[in-house]
Amino acid sequence: MKYLLILVIFLNGCGPLEQIENKYSKVQAKKEFKKMCKRDSGQDLLICGSKQKTIYKSEYSFLEYKYPSDNDEYISQYQLEDVFAIFSYTLDTFNATVFKYRSDKDDRYEYMLPNSQGLKKGDCEDYVITFIENCIEKGLIQRGEVKWVFGRADGVLHSWAIVTKNNKDFVFDTYYPFGISKELAYSNASYEKIFILYSY
Questions:
Q1: 31-56 per-position pLDDT tens digit
Q2: Domain ranges across the chain
Q3: What pTM was computed for the model?
Q4: Under 8 Å between Cβ of 134 and 93
Q5: What contacts 80, CB < 8 A, 6 or more positions away?
Q6: CA-CA to 158 of 20 to 30 Å: which in 24, 25, 85, 126?
Q7: H-only helix segments in the chain
């Protein structure tokens, strides 16, 4: 049971408290974010303040996508068309065939690019960075609709995005890559905010 718990932590969270507690200060997180923006300046990231990158109109709509299963326990939360569009995008972009969780001992923040096999790999911060960047670029998220949160989930240090649409909050992270209402997420796991690193 002990080893199973450790495995689950590394599959979804960002690591045990004792290993990276010192890396989860707001000062350290801001430093890592600035390092990423400087290192990845060639990628012209919108979350780093790019004014060159184009923001497109969303290509995802409520009518174009089919639910993966009529028995999905979270289907009722996607009644808002703009939230369903994000859900559709994440199903395409973060499903198990194109995204794999990879722990990061150096706490290096990265915008995930697909490798030669078309696979994106990263930890919870990398997921949030890529999710927010792509949603902004695709026009799925507007100003004032997303925050990048650092904290704990069930005692494990973690990072997640909160998207707000029509005054309803949704969590997107490595535990819930396709999104879940904040109410459901926080009832399923003990999410505890430490600070917000980025808001768009």
A1: 999 999 988 665 789 999 887 788 88
A2: 29-199
A3: 0.82
A4: yes
A5: 165, 166, 168
A6: 85
A7: 2-12, 17-20, 26-39, 81-93, 124-137, 182-188
